Sequence to fold (1036 residues):
Amino acid sequence: MILAVLFANSEGNILVERFNGVPAEERLHWRSFLVKLGADNLKGVKNEELLVASHKSVYIVYTVLGDVSIFVVGKDEYDELALAEVIFAITSAVKDACGKIPTERLFLDKYGKICLCLDEIVWKTLSYTTKASFDGHGGQDFFIVILNIL
Amino acid sequence: MAQPLVKKDDDRDDEAEYSPFLGIEKGAVLQEARVFNDPQLDPRRCSQVITKLLYLLNQGETFTKIEATEVFFAVTKLFQSRDIGLRRMVYLMIKELSPSADEVIIVTSSLMKDMTSKTDMYRANAIRVLCRITDGTLLTQIERYLKQAIVDKNPVVASAALVSGIHLLETTPEIVKRWSNEVQEAVQSRAALVQFHALALLHQIRQNDRLAVSKLVTSLTRGTVRSPLAQCLLIRYTTQVIREAATTQTGDRPFYDFLESCLRHKAEMVIFEAARAITELNGVTNRELTPAITVLQLFLSSSKPVLRFAAVRTLNKVAMTHPMAVTNCNIDMESLISDQNRSIATLAITTLLKTGNESSVDRLMKQITNFMSDIADEFKIVVVEAIRSLCLKFPLKYRSLMNFLSNILREEGGFEYKKAIVDSIVILIRDIPDAKENGLLHLCEFIEDCEFTYLSTQILHFLGTEGPKTSDPSKYIRYIYNRVHLENATVRAAAVSTLAKFGAMVDALKPRVFVLLRRCLYDGDDEVRDRATLYLNTVGSDGEVIETDKVVKDFLFGSLDIPLANIETSLKNYEPAEQPFDINSVPKEVKTQPLAEKKAPGKKPAGLGAPPSGPPSTVDAYEKLLSSIPEFSDFGKLFKSSAPVELTEAETEYAVNVVKHIFDRHVVFQYNCTNTIPEQLLENVTVIVDASEAEEFAEVASKPLRSLPYDSPGQIFGAFEKPEGVPAVGKFSNMLRFIVKEVDPTTGDVEDDGVEDEYQLEDLEVVAADYVMKVGVSNFRNAWESIGPDFERVDEYGLGPRESLAEAVSAVISLLGMQPCEGTEVVANNSRSHTCLLSGVFIGNVKVLVRLQFGIDGPKEVAMKLAVRSEDDNVSDMIHEIVASG
Fold:
C-alpha cells in the first residue's frame, strides 16, 4: 500500500501531507525522516530526477520540483517502480497547475489549483490529453487506483 | 497578520518569503466560509475560501463534527453557481468532508443531476463523489447511469465509473458484479487508461473463478494491450495463471513466450514487470532466466537511480537461488559499489558476495572496506551476513574474511551490528577448524573493550568451551582474568565460570587457575563469590595437577540435555517437600514449535543465541493424568506422548482424537472425545479396539467414560502390553460404542431411556517414530564425534520419484520422528542435494544421531545416504529398519 505522500519546501516545512495506514504516533517520525532524507540527498539534483531509498521493506521515491520536494512512500507491491509512476503523475499535475516549475510562492499561490489537479490528476500525465492544459477531469480516485493496483 | 491571499507580482525578490497562508487560523477561515451563504455568490472569493480550508486539512488540521456539518451545508449552497472552477472545488470539498448518511441526502439530487449532465467533467466528477459518499440503497437507484457511464464514449467518464466500481466492490460487491458485461466491453476500449481500469475491475470481479481468469489472460495475451499499466497487470495475472497451471500440466511452460516478448516492450515498467515475473517462476530454468537477466543487466548502467535500484534489487533476489545466472552481471555490479545511492551500493555488494568466485574475494573485500565506513548499521549488518555466507562457501579464504570481520569489530557500531559480527565469527570458528585460534583471539581482543554485557558473557562462555581445546590454552587466560577486574558483576561471574572450565579441562593450568579463582573469593558480588567457591570445591583437590573427575565435569559444564522450558515448568510444579527435586523427572521431549515461529528458510541458526525454547510442556499434564489412574500406575516412567491424531473428520457429530503414550512395556491410547450434538447425552462410552493387525500387542486394561454431555470433552483410555524395549508397530481399528439419550436443549431434561449405538472411527497406527523422542543437540558435530563410530551404520536408499527434495526430506524426518538440528530441515529452493542432521533418544534412553544426505536427479528420483550413530548397535540397526520398511 501507499503509506504517505508528502510535499515540503526547501527548508523542510510541510506543504501537503497525506498518510495512509500510518499510526498517528509514527507520522512525526516519518515526516522528519523524509525531510532529512531530502536535505541529505536532494541538493544539486535536477528537477524531476527521481531518487530512491529503501528502509527494510518500505520504499521511498522522491524528487525535487523547483522549490518543492516531493516524497512518496510505499510498501509491498508499491515498490520503487510503481512509486516512480505515481510521482511522475504528481509532478506532471503540479507543473500543469502552476504552468511552470514552481517556486514556493507560486506553489502556494496555486494551492487550490494544485489540490484540484492532484484530485483530478492523470489526464496530462497518463497519455490522455484533453484540449486544454488543465481542463480538469478524472480525479484523486484515479490516482488512488494507480496506487491500489500497482 | 493576515496577508492578502493573492498577490500576482511574483518576480520580486523581496517577496520570496511571502506566503498566502501566513498566520492562517481555523476559526477565521470558518468565519470566512459564511460567504458561501451570500445571495450574490462571488465564485472567486468562494474558491479562495475553499483553498484555505483545503490547506488547513492538508496541514493535519481537523474539524469538529459541528464545524464539518456547518461547512458542508454552506458548501451545498454553491451548487447554485454555474462557475465551472468553483463547482470542481465543491466536488473536492464534499469528498474531503465525508458527510454522514443523513447529510448526504442534501446533495444527492444535485449530484444525480450532474451525473446526467451534458458536461463531461460534471458527469465524471459527480460519479466519483456520489460513489464515495453513497450507500447501497442509493446505489441501486443510480446503477443504470453507472453502467452507461462505463461504456461512455468519453474516456474520462468511463474511467470515473470504473474506478468507482473498484472502490464499491469492497462494500457492495453483489451490485458491481452485475456490471461484468459493460466492464468487459470497456476492456476493449481504445483509451489506454480506460482499458487499464477496466482490466483491473474485471479481474477483481472474477478473481475467484480460475477458469474465467485463465480465459481473460489467454484472450488478452493474444491481442494488444495499449496501456503499459494494463500490460503490467496482465503480466501479474499471467503469472498467477502459470502458477496454478504448473501443478496440473507438464512440458513447456504456458505463457512463457508472452512474458519473454514483454521483455522487448517499449515501456520500462513492463520490461521490469516481465523480468521479475520470469525470475520468480517456480523452478525456473537457466534457459528461461537468461533473457530476463540480460535486460536487467542493461538497466544496471541506467542513468536513473530508480531503474538501477529496481534492477539490482531483482538480481539480488535471483542471486539467492541462482547465483551462477547472475555472474555475467558482476562487472556492472562492481561499478555500482561506488554508487552515490547507498541502498543500491549495498544491494550490489551483497549480490556480488553471493555470486563472486574464490579468486575475486580479495579484490571484493578491498572495495567493501572503503565502503563500510559510510553506510548505516542496518546496511552493514546485511553485508556482514553476506560475508559470513561467503566464508562458509570458500573456507580457504577464511583468513582475509576473518580479518575483515575483526577490523570492523573494532570500529564504532551499535549492538545489533556488533552482535551480527560476533555471531559470524563464532559460526566461522565452529565450521572452519583452521579459523579457530585466530577467531578466538579476535574475540578476546574484542572483549577487552566491549561495551555490551550480553556479548561479553556470550563470548566468555564460548571461550570456555572452545579455548581449552586449542594448542595453547594459556594465552586466553589473561583476557579472561582481566574481565574479573574490569567489568560489571554479570561479566565477572561469566569470567569465573570460564576460568574454571580452563582449570577443569586443562590439567596443566589447574594450579594457576586456582590461584586466580581464590582471588575471586573476595569479590564484592555474591554470584561471583558463590561461583568461585563452587568451582574451587568441586573441580579438584587444592589445585593439584590431577585430572578432574568426569562426573564433576559433566555436572559443572556438561550440557543440560533438557529443554529449558521443560525444566522451568517442572520447577514451578515442584512443591517443597522432604523429597528433593529430581532432575531426571523432567521430560526431555522438545515440543514442536508453531509454524509461524520457525526460522526463515535457509537461515542458519544464530551463532551465540540461546537455543529456541518451546512453549510450556504438556508432557507434565499427561504424566499427572496417567499416574492418577490406578490401572496404569505400575507402567513405570512415561517415555513419550504423541501429538493428538484425529480419528474423525472435522465437524462430525462426535469429535475424537487420540494421544499415544509410550511406556517401556506398554502403550496407552488416550481417546479425547467431544459430543457436538446439544440434543444428545452419551453414556457408558467405550472404544472397542481391534488389534488383529497389531500382533505384538495385547489389551490389558480399558477405562470407559460414564457420561459424555454436549460440548464437554471426556477421555477414554485403552492400555496394551508389548514386548519390552522392542519398537513394536501395528494398526488398530476403533469403534466408539455408547448409549445415546435424547436431551431437551431448552430445559436440559434427559429422557430416561437410551439406545445403544456405535460410531466408526478412523484406524490408528503405532509406528516406529513413536519410540523416538525428539531431543535436540546444540552442536551436532561435537555430539556426532563424541558418540564415535563404534556403532555407526551407513547404507544407501533409493526413495523413488518425489515431488521435490524438500518433500523427500520432510517425509524421512516424519518417518523417523527425530529432531532436526541446526536448521537442516529447510531445503534451499531448487537445490539438487541436501544434508539433514537429526537427533533423538530411542526407547530405553539410547542417544541416536542421524546424518541424511539426499540427492535428486533429472526425473526427480531421490537417493539417500543414511548414516546412524548411537550408543547401541541394535538401535542403529533399528533406525535403518525403520527407513527400509517405511
Observations:
- Confidence is low (pLDDT under 50) at residues 1-15, 592-617 of chain B.
- The two ends of chain B are 87 Å apart (CA to CA).
- Chain B has six domains: 22-254, 360-451, 475-558, 563-588, 619-766, 768-885.
- The longest helix of chain B spans residues 228-246.
